[in-house]
Specification:
about 500 residues; alpha/beta; D-Maltodextrin-Binding Protein, domain 2; 4 domains; ten-stranded mixed β-sheet; four-stranded mixed β-sheet; 17 strands; about 35% helix
């Protein structure tokens, strides 16, 4: 999605970020609830309440997160559990036809690689202001969700039986008594093992690290595919020591397993776990022109395509003539097929145009079609932006399934503010409860409001998001028949609009 499009039209954001920092030390955590349900392949959304995810979190952990997310949002998660390396490989292989929306979990080295390969779409959670700058993505693409340190996870029963001390340094791992008792993941498939390897390179140096790894290999029991498998093996007694992240080992202790953590005194590494939006995973943006006098396409500089109203009229005329509808299809099936063809696909967004009314100003039938299509499509997009007609009739008709952000736009006049105030009152009466409802004043001379307009805003208890100045560039573009979206970013109205959207986190 182009940045300009995202800034202008990102109004309905359907994504949730998690933020949790795991300390580099011991401690116990509440055991997550377990569930045996899992999908082998993320399903495409068939409704408005589904999200497809690739995750590198352990099964028990990811179930806890997704259960909480589904409870709080009503959105069903379809997920595939992969190692961090497998997740990156899969997203790259599906680059031209993404099958998931989100990468969730795994260390940032995989996300940095994904950024370099152009696999991710930039998005920053509004909660990142609570996160230390050390852990942030300088490209503004992936989002940090935890920090974990490399530790030695030790089977306490084995060490008690042998009467041995826990290892406290990387050199301790080379002791002969640990031969065949150490386990870790393989760096080719695991972000955990990659972090171990990167740690040793920094500690030992490029020349000596390989000598150390050869010696360590003689004490290895096996190399697992995923990082979380290593502490699991230690927990059930298949090995004495796992080289793993501390949080992967700690989650086993509430389940009754006797695991003790030891951190190497000569230094250890850590990972920043992350999540990110997959580029092209589901449609990024659906734009709906819900005005009978459709002109949003002209503003965006795209062909409008066929509207729902036009299709309805086409079907009505076909009925009168007794033709056009294929004999192999029922009228209902044909109508559904034709209405779905109204979805126009652009490079940056998809577009749906409501169009003309149903005779003598009646919107009933076409309105119902629009509602049905929105219910069907909305789960397939991260952003849905609806340009309503001036009177906001769609709110009263219940066309919109829910509203996360409602931006009320008025010209720079008392009468305009009064009209917007009536819409705001209707929203309250219908108990719609949008996540935010703000006023934007348009075409203000010099970008300044008069005292009278300010008084009117205050009298109706409207929250002002910002003011767009009168801009000659908009007037000139309209006179020349050019789309307003092509106005230079440096123009006063564009700068003001970008500032408003950033302040609103849209």
């Amino acid at each position: 999605m182009k940045k300009s499009t995202k800034r202008l039209f990102a109004a309905l954001l359907a994504a949730t970020s998690l933020l949790a920092l795991t300390a580099c030390g011991g401690g116990k955590t509440e055991a997550p609830k377990t569930d045996d349900s899992k999908t082998e392949q993320p399903a495409e959304s068939s409704g408005s309440k589904e999200l497809s995810v690739y995750t590198a979190f352990p099964e028990s952990e990811v179930i806890y997160y997704f259960n909480k997310f589904e409870q709080e949002t009503g959105i069903k998660i379809n997920y595939v559990r992969l190692s961090a390396g497998e997740m990156l490989t899969r997203v790259e292989a599906e680059k031209n036809n993404p099958q998931a929306t989100l990468m969730f979990g795994g260390s940032t080295d995989n996300y940095i690689a994904a950024v370099d390969k152009g696999l991710l779409e930039a998005y920053q959670s509004p909660n990142l202001d609570k996160t230390p700058s050390t852990y942030l993505d300088p490209t503004g693409t992936w989002n940090p969700i935890y920090v974990g340190c490399i530790a030695f996870a030790c089977n306490a029963d084995w060490f008690a039986e042998k009467g041995l001390e826990y290892p406290t340094s990387w050199e301790d791992l080379l002791k002969p008594e640990f031969k065949g008792e150490i386990i870790m993941a393989h760096p080719a498939t695991s972000g955990t093992a990659y972090t171990v390897l990167a740690t040793l390179v920094q500690l030992k140096g490029d020349d000596q690290v390989w000598d150390y790894l050869e010696k360590l290999n003689t004490n290895m029991s096996q190399y697992t595919k995923s990082g979380s498998a290593a502490p699991n093996a230690v927990a059930i007694g298949e090995a004495a020591i796992a080289l793993t992240f501390s949080h992967d080992a700690l989650q086993l202790t509430p389940e009754g397993y006797h695991i003790e953590l030891s951190f190497p005194t000569d230094g250890t590494g850590y990972e920043v776990g992350a999540m990110a939006l997959i580029k092209g995973g589901k449609g990024p943006l659906l734009v709906v022109d819900a005005d009978a006098n459709s002109n949003l396409n002209e503003v965006l500089g795209v062909e409008a395509g066929v509207s729902l109203g036009q299709i309805r009229e086409e079907i009505a005329q076909a009925e009168l003539r007794g033709d056009t509808i294929p004999k192999s299809m029922t009228k209902a099936d044909y109508a559904e097929y034709r209405f779905e063809s109204a979805l126009a696909e652009e490079d940056d967004f998809d577009m749906l145009v409501m169009g003309r009314t149903q005779g003598k100003g009646c919107y009933c039938y076409v309105n119902g079609v629009l509602k049905t299509l929105l219910d069907k499509y909305i789960g397939a997009y991260r952003y849905v932006v609806i340009d309503n007609e001036a009177g906001m009739e769609h709110i009263a008709r219940g066309t919109l399934p829910h509203v996360d952000a409602l931006l009320l736009v008025s010209d720079c006049s008392r009468r305009g503010v009064q009209a917007v105030a009536r819409i705001a009152e209707m929203v309250r009466e219908l108990d719609l409860k949008p996540g935010l409802m703000k006023l934007i004043i348009n075409r203000a001379p010099g970008g300044v409001l008069s005292d009278g307009v300010r008084e009117e805003i205050e009298a109706h208890h409207l929250e002002l998001a910002g003011v767009l100045p009168q801009d000659d560039a908009v007037y000139e573009a309209d006179c020349d028949g050019k789309p307003s979206s092509k106005i230079p970013d440096a123009s006063p109205v564009k700068r003001a609009l970008h500032g408003i959207m950033q302040d609103l986190s849209l």
